[in-house]
Predict the structure of Cobalt-zinc-cadmium efflux system membrane fusion protein.
Amino acid sequence: MKNILYSFLVLAFLSCHSKSNETATSEENKDNTIVSLTDAQAKNTAIKIGKLEQKTLSSLLKVTGKIDVPPQNMVSISMPLGGYLKSTKLLPGLHISKGEVIATMEDQQYVQLQQDYLITKSRLYYAEKEFERQKELNKNQASSDKVFQMADAEYQNLRITLGGLGEKLKLININPATLSEKNISKSVALYAPINGFVSKVNVNIGKYVNPSDVLFELINPSDIHLNLKVFEKDITKLSIGQKLVAYTNNQPEKKHPCEILLISKDLSTEEHAADVHCHFENYDNSLLPGMYMNAEIELKNNNAFAINQEAIVNYEGKDYIFVTIGKNQFKMIEVKTNVAENGYVEIVNANELEGASIVTKGAYTLLMKLKNKADE
């Protein structure tokens, strides 16, 4: 009787133990994120374990912008006194040199201005002599103070008038010092104030222009720079002197090294972006003002938590890693990755993996076993 009772208890225990194992195995099979290896499999797989490490990784900030010209390198040419355009050879894109004649203007008012200057200059000569004479007479009490004061006022008035007319002549590029009755001209020349090229021609020969009209626009390409738009969230990552490369949509393979010169302190209302001005290290003449460009700026992230690239597996478009949850037992966990450099990948959700033992070698073997289990 005792033997029968003992046998029944053993069978009941084995039955419960078997059911427990079946339940555990069933639960494991239901969880498609857990994979188990036998000791032999673990040895053959040569799995290595590691943890997240702090690394200095570089990332690329991609922005857009366009080629710009600082105000001091862009010149608008106008005629301060107006007039008719007599001649010009300028065409957009034409190179010009400083001091070169770029146009000839013509108007009768130029003649009148020169005439007024020479007549005033002649009257001033007489007024100066009269002033000296009255001064001497007044000194000897041979002339009244009133006459002397009138001669003084006339002399001063003519000096002022002559000075004003002389400045007007300079506005139309006529040198008052060399002007005489023998070289009065109805035509005056316009000269290029800078070295560069012509960007716009707004007039044609024979057209009358007002003092406010812009005839030509000239650009000095010596200081052409790249103006980038950088959003608020990225602006604090940049600094003066930082290096970058720029390229056009038409020639993305042709890189143009640049350096950040100035970072605006004002954000645009619409885009919430700031202007970042960059200098071309070697300016290419094929780059024209107004041309759109792309730029890549290398950023350093000193606080990045990263793992060996071999630890990352990609499955159905998502990135995963395996962490140990027991002896020869591993769980697949989804991770968000960022930049990769020197064999390491930044893990964005690193706070979820603090202290975890991560499979750094053999992760794809575990993924294959997990997929095969899911297909069974």
Observations:
- The first strand starts at residue 34 and ends at 36.
- DSSP finds six helices and 22 strands in the chain.
- Residues 1-29 have pLDDT under 50 and may be disordered.
- Residues 62-71+220-300 form a domain with the Elongation Factor Tu (Ef-tu); domain 3 fold (CATH 2.40.30.170).
